[in-house]
Every structure is written in structure tokens, then in C-alpha cells.
Write a structure and sequence with these properties.
The chain is built from three helices and five strands, in the order αβββαββα. By secondary structure, the chain is an alpha+beta fold. It has a domain of about 30 residues. It has a three-stranded antiparallel β-sheet, with no helix packed on it. It has a two-stranded antiparallel ribbon with strand order 4-5. The model has no long low-confidence stretch (mean pLDDT about 80).
Length: about 150
């Protein structure tokens, strides 16, 4: 505790002389000069430099508004990316379900295929219709099972 307090005190004492003063003077030709050390044989005045920006300045407010706008855009961008990722994940899960369903249907395809007609009667697929159905299944499996 004592060592850290002593170190802090030393740092504060050493930093104070590092703050350089700025001197302003006018030479014989009327030119204004600024320097960190006063000139010899010339009258000079110390210039106070305020390193912190004025909180009431329009530049500060404009910068703050730009930062707020930027942060808002970034937040919206992150939200959109998050939503897109969720949609992609849902689509991937849906494709995986379709894939599993199509593969199961293809495995069970050694049976005769039957479709229900609008009137409720059964329609048994012939060989040509069956092959067309299997071709569609294989194409869907290619698409959904990536």
C-alpha cells in the first residue's frame, strides 16, 4: 500500500514539469511567434492552452451525434445479421427434415405407390409414374441433403 502510494506521488510530481508552457511574442518586423521557451531580450506572454474541448461547442455535439448515428447503424447491422443467421438456421433445419423424410420415402419405395384422388378413390401409380416420382425424390434429396 505504501509503495503504491509513493509511486503514485512520484508520478504526479514528475508529470507536472512535463506540461510545457507556450510563450507568445512579436518580433521587430511584427511577426508573431510561439515557442515553448521564452525568447532572450524580448518580452513574451504565457499563453494558456485548454486541451479539453468545450462541451458546449457545436463541433463536440456534431461529433457526438455522428458517434451515436454510427453506433445505431452498427446495432441495426448486428440485429439484421442475427436475424439472417436465425433464418438460415431455420431453413437448414427444415431442409434436414425434408431430407430425412425424402430418404425414408425412397427406402420404402419397394412397395406399390398409391395416391388418393379428389373423390377419395385410390390411384395406383404405374411404372412410368413411379419412376417420375422417384426422380423427383432423388432431385429433392440432392437439393435438401447438402
Amino acid at each position: 500500500m505504501f509503495k503504491s502510494s509513493l509511486a503514485l506521488l512520484l508520478i504526479l510530481l514528475l508529470c507536472n514539469p512535463l506540461q510545457a508552457a507556450v510563450h507568445r511574442w512579436v518580433d521587430e518586423q511584427g511577426n508573431v511567434h510561439f515557442s515553448d521557451s521564452p525568447p532572450k531580450n524580448q518580452n513574451s506572454e504565457k499563453v494558456r492552452i485548454d486541451a479539453t474541448p468545450s462541451s458546449s461547442g457545436s463541433h463536440y455535439k456534431e461529433r457526438l451525434n455522428r458517434q451515436k448515428d454510427y453506433l445505431e447503424e452498427r446495432r441495426e447491422s448486428r440485429e439484421e445479421a442475427k436475424q439472417l443467421k436465425a433464418e438460415q438456421k431455420a431453413e437448414k433445419e427444415k431442409n434436414q427434415q425434408r431430407c430425412a423424410s425424402d430418404k425414408l420415402e425412397l427406402e420404402l419405395s419397394n412397395r406399390r405407390l398409391v395416391r388418393a384422388n379428389p373423390d377419395g378413390s385410390r390411384h395406383y401409380l404405374d411404372d412410368k409414374e413411379r419412376e417420375a416420382h422417384f426422380d423427383k425424390l432423388r432431385e429433392r434429396i440432392k437439393t435438401n441433403c447438402k
